[in-house]
Amino acid sequence: ELSRVMDRACDVALAALTNFVAGSYRVNATTGKLDPKDAKAIEDTVTGKLKIALKEAQHVTDIYFVVDTNNNVLSTGQLKGKVRVLPLAYSEYVSVEVAYFNPAIAS
């Protein structure tokens, strides 16, 4: 189950990020790193698509995308980021306690 969720996250992120290929972005004039406003806009767009596809469909507990703002986009020409998935928990077994009780002393 977890691998299917991760595969779906990859597909959705790739489709969302394809819209940013060959885009033009503001960078810091000194470092060449992506401007925080542009990074936030990309993160919001990709995270939104991931949440619709996976969180709202109740396949994950939470999911988000973060842009690597330490990358020098000006020199590398690459927009780097990470998808982070908080999966649903799946029980592997059930543990139950069964016992007698006395209603006269039950609290």
Structural category: alpha+beta
The strand count comes to: 2
Give the SSE string.
HHEHE
Question: Averaged pLDDT, please?
Answer: 94
**Strand arrangement across the biggest beta sheet:** 1-2
- The proportion of residues forming helix, as a percent range, comes to 25-40%
Give the oligomeric state: single chain
| β-strand amount | 5-15%
Strand count, sense and closure of the main sheet?
2 strands, antiparallel
Number of helical regions: 3
Shape verdict: elongated
**Nearest-angstrom radius of gyration?**
22 Å
Low-pLDDT windows of residues: none
End-to-end CA span: 42 Å
What does this structure look like?
The chain has 107 residues and is an alpha+beta fold. The protein is 38% helix and 14% strand. The chain has three helices and two strands. The chain has helices spanning 2-18, 36-55, 73-76; strands at 60-67, 81-87. It has a two-stranded antiparallel sheet with strand order 1-2. Helix 1 (2-18) packs across helix 2 (36-55). The two termini are 42 Å apart.
